[in-house]
Amino acid sequence: MKAFIRTYFFSFFSAFATQILVSGFEHTGFIDSPFIIFVLGLSLTEFFIFPLLRILALPRKGLGGLLMRAVLSGLVMYICTAIIAGFSVTSTVLPGIRIIDIVLPAKELNPAMSLGASALTYSIVFGLLGWLCDNTR
């Protein structure tokens, strides 16, 4: 039970951070039932599907694991748009970023690219949280 609550909290925080960073999906309110159900779907994926990947000897760590997590998260986000009323993936604009003297221009994303950016951002944040709170010794 403790592991599922941890996974749910990580999924909630990752989805919330993804919404702040990318704004790739929208729901009817700030934190309402479509968002809670969406996070539940993501956490169930993280809790049940990734142990199956361990059994099947598919990559779980590194770049392969990040790509696998991003693909599965994107698939869950796409399924949630079809199942959950009031939840949709929308087009968005990524703001321009300036780091020292390197300028990354703003990019307008269609819904499919927005879904991919949201899934990748979710996977990076979830992986970072999992790495920070890893308690295997």
Give a verbal description of the structure.
By secondary structure, the protein is of the alpha+beta class. 64% of the residues lie in helices and 13% in strands. It is built from 4 helices and 6 strands; from the N terminus they run αβααβββββα. The chain has helices at residues 2-21, 33-55, 62-83, 111-132, and strands at 25-27, 87-89, 92-94, 97-99, 102-104, 107-109. Strand 4 and strand 5 form a beta hairpin. Helix 1 (2-21) crosses helix 2 and helix 3 (62-83) crosses helix 4 (111-132). It starts with a helix and ends in a 5-residue tail after the last helix.
Task: Give descriptors for this structure.
4 helices; alpha+beta; 6 strands; two-stranded antiparallel ribbon; 137 residues; globular; 13% strand
Question: Any chance you could write out the topology, listing elements then pairs?
Answer:
Elements: H1 2-21, E1 25-27, H2 33-55, H3 62-83, E2 87-89, E3 92-94, E4 97-99, E5 102-104, E6 107-109, H4 111-132
Antiparallel strand pairs: 1-2, 3-6, 4-5
Short description:
The chain is α+β, with helices and mostly antiparallel strands.
In N-to-C order, the SSE pattern is: HEHHEEEEEH
The largest sheet has its strands arranged as: 1-2
Class by SSE composition: alpha+beta
Q: How many helices? A: 4
The count of strands amounts to 6
Measured as a percent range, the helix fraction is 55-70%
Tell me the β content.
5-15%
Q: What is the radius of gyration?
A: 15 Å
Total number of domains: 1
Q: Main beta sheet, described?
A: 2 strands, antiparallel
Kindly state the mean pLDDT as a whole number? 82
Distance between the termini: 20 Å
**What sort of overall outline do the alpha carbons produce when their principal axes are compared?**
globular
Low-pLDDT runs:
none
